[in-house]
Structures are given as structure tokens and as C-alpha cells.
Amino acid sequence: MRLANKRVIITGGNRGIGRAITERFLKEGARVALLVRRDVSPFIKELTDKGYSVQARQTDITDYEQVKQAIDAIVQAWGGVDILVNNAAIISREGVLDMSLKAWHEVMDVNVNAAFYCSKAVIPYLSAQRSGTILNISSVAAKCGDITAAPAYGTSKGALTTFTRSLARQLAPYQVRVNAIAPHAIVTEMSAQWSDEKRKQVISAIPLGRMGTVEEVASTALFLASNEASFITGETVNINGGYLMD
Ligand SMILES: NC(=O)c1ccc[n+]([C@@H]2O[C@H](COP(=O)([O-])OP(=O)(O)OC[C@H]3O[C@@H](n4cnc5c(N)ncnc54)[C@H](O)[C@@H]3O)[C@@H](O)[C@H]2O)c1
Can you give the residue ranges of the Ketoreductase domain (predicted)? Predict the structure, then answer.
């Protein structure tokens, strides 16, 4: 098993890409704690019934005090932590002129600030043990702007990719790796909101001619989180069927 006994914290890991990462990491031997918005007891029960070690804590990840309290409690119970996955995100589809200041800040709070808060809470443990990894779920929008013309979302993902590089440099002396994934056109509830026309248009621009699956994203997350990626840090890996090659 590629993550045997690894202790993993994932934000919003109860559906979509986060859920696939949670399930894949558990199958590879990890213990997982989710920081979630709402009660996800049925999901947790489904997994614990299968014998997996998984828990969820309802946490407002846009509130640093709550994040710190939740992460400290999880890590103290485990006696350490090895992997943080900053996965949770929201999207707001208004253009700049239509977007309220509140909507802009909400996107930044969940997509950027929460990643900073979770990292800030986890880093003292990782750097003290001189091992571990942080994985940020960014987006192709970080590199070429959001394809659904959602400026706050694209900007937030650009910030996350830059945060990844900055943190990778800061934590390298402690042997802590920081990477990101930039998916595009993955079948989830987020992309289910697209119109049929939008979906066709998106697929027509993808050389592999289809959308991606959450399992394909989870496979890349597993690689980056495991020791197989031990010399990779500061990288943002494309998962996009060839849509963007950079
Ligand atoms: N689906 C795609 O095509 C695609 C493409 C590029 C990037 N991504 C990124 O992948 C990640 C997962 O997206 P997804 O498609 O699975 O979306 P999703 O909407 O299905 O899942 C997002 C998750 O974030 C959680 N979340 C949102 N706000 C939260 C908060 N305040 N506190 C805690 N959890 C919160 C949700 O509960 C949910 O579990 C996101 O970072 C997203 O930006 C997705």
C-alpha cells in the first residue's frame, strides 16, 4: 500500500474530486480526517463500515481559529500528520462588473485563505518531523483564466498555484514537499452545472476528446502525495486531456 499509516487531512473531501481522493487514499492504507461544511455522517459510516479509519469535523475553514482548533485536535489524537490536501473550493460565475464585493471575498476566503489557514496550522507539525507533503487542488484556470469567465475563481486558483511554489521553497529545507494539481473538465457536481452547449464546446477543445474522471485526479493526487514523487516540489500538474500543454 502506497500510503500505509499516513495521516491525511482533506478539506471538503466528501464529494467530487475530494471524495475520490479520500476513497483512494483510504484504500492505500491512509488514515483520513475531513474538514467539512456540513454533517457527512452517512458518508463516514459507509467508509468506517468497510473498515477504513476516517473521521469528519464540521469546520468553517474560512475561520482560522476553528481551523487551528480542529487540526490541533486531529493531530494530537493521531500523534502527528503527514499530508494536507487543500481541496475545498467554490465558484462564482459573475463577471467583474456584476460581482458583489461579498461574492469576490467569499471565493477568496474558501479557495485561497482557507488553504493558507490549513497550511499554517499543519506546517509546525510537518516541519518539526521533517517530513510530509501539502497538495493544493488548483485548476487550469490558474494558468489561462477561467473558461466559464469566472474571474474570482480563476484569480483564486492562480493565487493557489503561486502559494504552492512559495510554500515549496519555504518548506524544502524541512523535507516537506508542496505541489498542486490543475484539473480541467472533470465530471463532478461543479461541472454538472454547465449547459450541454458549454460541455460540447469544452470537449471539442480537449485533444483526448472527453472529460476526465475524479478517479484520474485521485491517481495523480496519490502519486504526488506518495514517496514516488519524493523529488517533486513546487509543481502544478496538469490533468486536462491535453487541453493546455505548458
Ligand atoms: N470539476 C472540475 O472540472 C474541476 C476543474 C478544476 C479544478 N477543480 C477543483 O477541484 C476541487 C474539487 O472540486 P469538485 O469539482 O470536486 O467540486 P465540488 O463542488 O463537487 O466539491 C467542492 C468541495 O468543497 C467543499 N467546500 C466548499 N466550500 C467549503 C467550505 N467553506 N468549507 C468546507 N468545505 C467546503 C464542498 O463541500 C465540496 O466537498 C476544487 O478545488 C475545484 O476548484 C475542479
Answer: 6-197
Host H or E run for residue 108: helix 101-108
Tell me what pLDDT residue 93 has.
Answer: 86
Whose alpha carbon is nearest atom 30 of ligand 1?
A: 37
Contact 236, 220 (CB under 8 A): no
Task: Answer for the pair 202, 185: CB distance below 8 angstroms, yes or no.
Answer: yes
Instruction: Answer for the pair 35, 86: CB distance below 8 angstroms, yes or no.
Output: no
**53: which 3 cell numbers?**
479509519
Task: Give the C-alpha separation, 155 to 35, whole Å.
Answer: 23
Cell of 117: 489557514
Mean pLDDT by groups of 10 residues along the chain of 246 residues:
98 97 98 98 98 98 98 98 98 91 97 98 98 98 81 96 98 98 92 89 96 98 98 98 96
Fold of domain 7-238: Rossmann fold (3.40.50)
Spell out the domain ranges in the chain.
7-238
